[in-house]
């Protein structure tokens, strides 16, 4: 593979991961938690970024050096585990994709004024068009890069207009006034949990970037993916913080749209439509592509008709959206669900990193293993605490 093509695939995989993470749930989570935590949300973002990098490097490197998809690796660790993980990934991916379809419809509704259901169907049709192309991979890469750039430019504009208290945000990023464990779990789960962390790793594998010799490129792409998603998160955090610091009331029904409108009026509201559509349409593509990549282990025959299965996944997500809608609570729940899945998937791949039958003679860096084990432990404890809190709430 030529270096120029390699770079295009690496960048495409990074943006596929990043734009898979930056969906309607990502936008909603960032806005809601900034509203509740204020400048201290910066600490949550910093913590999640560090954890995200550790997760991505561990998982992508093991996938690349083993030259196998995650569920195949899991089955080598424990027979049947790959199928179990695939089911979890599919449930989380479908939950997110229902919100993704609705978010894309909402974005188009803002831009066109058409009914949101029609707009959702139109957005789904556009996502389907990507997979109607025989060589869908390169098209998917370019589309993710374009939409990612559009989101970054639009959010920069809004962030500048709100005049956020940057000094206070920087201070509370290292010295938070309060810490919210649910927010950390939700952010990590919404950025690298569930299907998201595997989107870029599986894309590189499908593009032939694999094996020990490819590890420097794989690591570079993984860090780029986290960097792009984190940049968008930070910009949206600052935009929302600027609105919150002015004492303006954010509408609970559509918090992100409210922030954009309060920041820049009608122009801001239209920019929200652009950002929501770009975020959602790329997440539809990333969720469908990655979720179906897990099914290949359970049903090997799917590989021969992969694009058809991806199209079916998108159609199912659209039908479910039309049926049950897209409440904000579902998007927050989906991020938390992926946070619960993460310790299982990361822990499995860390075990695989020390199985010669999986990785051959490769030696996984000790510092990455230690970091990965810490993330598994922290996410397990935090997830357990959140679960206990939720159960305690049910008894009240």
Automatic annotation (TrEMBL):
The keyword Magnesium does not apply. The chain crosses the membrane at residues 37-57, 77-98, 110-131, 143-161, 181-201, 222-249, 269-295, 307-324, 330-354, 366-388. This is Membrane protein. It is found in: Membrane. Keywords: Membrane, Transmembrane, Transmembrane helix. It is a multi-pass membrane protein. Pfam families: Nramp. The keyword Membrane applies. InterPro entries: NRAMP_fam.
